[in-house]
User: What shape does this take?
Amino acid sequence: MTRDRTPLVSWSRWPSLLPAAVLLVAVVVDVLTPSGFSVFPLLAAAPVLAAPVYSLSGTIATGVVTQLIGMSLSYTKENITLTEHFLRFTTVVVLTVLAAILNQVMAKDRKQLKDTREVAEAVQRAVLPASPERVGPLDVASRYRAAAKEAAIGGDLYAIHPTPDSVRMMIADVRGKGLGAVRTVNRLLGAFYEAAAHVPGLTDVVDRLEELMQRVDAEEEGGTESFATAVLIDVPNDGSAIYMINLGHPAPLLVHQGRATPLEPSAPSLPLGLGDLGRTRVPVDRYTLPHDATLVLFTDGLVEARDRHGTFYDPVPFLSRPLPTDPGVILDTLLADLTRYTEGRLDDDAALMAVTRLPDVSDDDSAAQFRVGVAVGGG
Assistant: This one.
């Protein structure tokens, strides 16, 4: 995939060029056509086109420039009467005023949507746990990016919890948006922390979460079906391996030595909440976790983001290059690349978590890290 997709003029900037383009075309057409041909309708469109893409001052300035160009072109035509001059002048003034009003209405709507989206993102961040920077043998970072077109709270979640023998983590995406999704997210987080702390195996954690989702589904009104795609991971305290269960979720990426490798499950498994459709015992896949390797987990808002041509974003090429081992830096640069690729238009929420295996430490240091992890991230 070609990574340099930035055109000389960004697609999102073309609308802002339309008013100037219309004025330029009007002047060219007026010069090249006979004296009986009028370009006034084309000129009159410029202030209206400016309303949705410019500020209030820019919209008014477009109207003023349109008026000046219109008057200049009109006075070059000998057959234009004084009455027609006045009508054209008045028309541009009225259209400019209407465009200014439209501009303010649209600006207010955009601000309300922006404020609502920021509130939704703030609520989502309040719901999600604050990840500790270090848990056991792992450096940890997490990020959340709200959709550009949505003001509803999403169902993306992540969690990490240390146990005496390992570090357990989960990333999941609950179907739907709004308060119903938030309630399910809260219940899933609580069930995960409870199960991660008390049940022995990763498959047992899945069983607990499946039971919860079945209860949520039974409580839903209107016949809607609740489910959540998820990845659950167990990393032993020596940091040598990753034990993973993937329940219909995008495959995490293992980033090491300039290469990003998707950790695909050995067999597909149904999402949480759909186990009654025939899921057998879920497979647990084991992968090696090298020193300084980073595991990047994300929800489908990342890989379902599109560029202006409709092509899905693929994080593998971007992560397959020399990168720092800091998981926070990796996520920040990945999100920056996503913003560039989509030109800021994210259609769905995206939650991301990254963990990097630290160099081997002494037993005393490991115990200290574990105690800090419990205090900060202990659900």
Notes: The two ends are 40 Å apart (CA to CA). The first strand starts at residue 134 and ends at 135. Confidence is low (pLDDT under 50) at residues 1-11, 361-379.
